[in-house]
Every structure is written in C-alpha cells, then in structure tokens.
Amino acid sequence: MTRPFRFGVVGTGSTAEEWQTFARKAEDLGYSTLGVQDHFGKQFAPLPALMAAAAVTSRLRLTTIVLGNDFRHPVVLAKDVATMDVLTGGRIELGLGAGWLQADYQQAGMAYDPPGKRLERLAESVAICRAFFAGETVSYQGRHFQVRDLEGFPKTTQHPRLPIMIGGRQRRMLSFAAQEADIVGVSLLDRAVPGGPKPPSFEQKVRWVREAAGSRIDHIELHINASNLVVTDNASAALDQIAGRLGVPAEEALASPAVIVGNVDACVERLCELRERYGVSYFVVREQALESAAPVVARATGM
C-alpha cells in the first residue's frame, strides 16, 4: 500500500506572537503537523505550546516529537493528552519515546537508567495511555506503575483511537514501536564510536520494523526527520556544506534519507524514491526550512 505523503515541521518558540504566527504559516503552507520536541533547553514546553498553536489554527495537527517518557507520570500524561484532543477537535498525535538525551536527565537531577529499564517504563506508559484513551476504567499493575480504578475521562475525540508515534534507532526499540505504534519514527541519530560496531543502516532499521510488525505493517506510517531538506539550484555546494557539518564524505551524506537536496523536482523525486524503497511517507523538517520547503510540500501532496 502506497501512503500519501505527509509533512510536518518542528518549532521551538520564543514569544507568543512569533509562535502563533509560525503555526498559522505552517497551516497555510500545507504542512500536516506542527511538532515540538521535549527538552529542557531554550524552547517552549511542548503541551502548552501546542495548545497555543491550536488556538490560531483549524486544520493543523499537533504532535510531540517526541516526549521523554520519564518526565511525566503516564496517568498525568494520558489525562493531559486526552483533554488536548477534546479541546482541539481531535487534532493531537502523541509522540512518545524512552528518553535519550542524557543532558536532560542531568539537568533535572534524574537517574539515567539503562536502555532496557527505560523501555520497560515506556511500554507500561503506552499500555496505560491506550486504555485511558479508549475511555476505559484503567487498572494496571506493572513493575514501574500501578493504577487502580482510574476513569478514562475525557474520552478522546479521535476514533477508533488517538495516534501514537514511537521513535527509536536500535532494534529493541524499533521492534517495540512496530508492535505498538501507529506511527514509527526511525531515528537517524546514530554516531559511530571509534573501535565500536558500525551503526545499523537505515535499510536494516526498516527491516527490523517490518519483521516485528508482521501483518500490521500496512497500518503503520513510517516517519523520519528530514533535518537536511534543502531546496536549492546549487545542490553540489549545499551537499558539501551538509557533509562538512556532519563530518562525513559527501557521498555518505547523500545516502542518508535525512539528506534531500536539490531543486523542487529533485527533492520530490528523492521523496518518491524513499517512499517506494522503504515505505517512508511522513517527513518532518526543521523550522528554518518552513518556507523554503513549502514548494516541495505542495508538489508532493498535490496541493
């Protein structure tokens, strides 16, 4: 099944006026989603920022790319997100991850547990959120969270369920996402360690997702952060600049699905190639590319 393209843009926010202008522009330019990351640096907190964006838009979907699971109790998160879905008329997508940036944990004075333990907590949170979003009375007895006779109110506006995106870059995380998520974010944040094993290729990551998803693969939307989508008539110079920033040869940079460089036709051709080869149909660009990538969004989505 060939999915239609969707495009999102991430933002950080600085003032209310700038943020809401950014949200309006994203909607006007044809983006499907506005996303906010979840870090403790110089950016707005994601959930209030998305509600402020919802107030000045009508079609734009609002998403977290992605929330650090350890920063919120799942009951609090589920109630907040369900409330947001009702108040926005069903425009919320919940992106959730196990937490990866160690600096966030250090700044917050939180223990940065091994990956397996963080994934355990994430799995429990997803189960609790799913039950809450279904409007069930939630009772859950897990290793990390215990919930007793919690009424799932408000019930989300979206049916049959509010979409959940889970992102990851290693096999265990991507396999979990493939089994539980509606949207799987395939992370490209690998860094080679001198003397260590070579990071898995993007093709390998997609293969893990497909193997773990089994028959539900047709119901999964594959996502990547197209952090280096550059619309230009001088593709060679842009590619050299990207390769220098990444510290890799130009050929290696060009092979990354996150690197989409060239004029509008070339960029759309590359997007179609990625969709055909890997099944990726949901691309999220940086806020700096909001306007420059808009012609690509329009062409690819048939606006």
Keywords:
13 strands, about 300 residues, two-stranded antiparallel ribbon, 11 helices, eight-stranded parallel β-barrel, alpha/beta, about 40% helix
Total DSSP helices: 11
Sheet with most strands: 8 strands, parallel, barrel
Report mean pLDDT, rounded to a whole number: 95
Oligomer: single chain
Shape: globular
Structural class, from helix and strand content? Answer: alpha/beta
- Rounded to the nearest angstrom, the radius of gyration is 19 Å
What does this molecule look like?
With 303 residues, this protein is an alpha/beta fold. The chain has a domain at 1-62 and 228-303. The protein contains 11 helices and 13 strands. The strands form 3 sheets. The protein has an 8-stranded parallel beta barrel, surrounded by 7 helices. Strands 6-7 form a two-stranded antiparallel sheet. Helix 3 links the parallel strand 4 (67-68) and strand 5 (92-97). Helix 1 crosses helix 2 (46-54), helix 3 packs across helix 5 (115-133) and helix 10 (264-278) packs across helix 11. The longest helix has 19 residues, at 115-133. The model has no long low-confidence stretch (mean pLDDT 95).
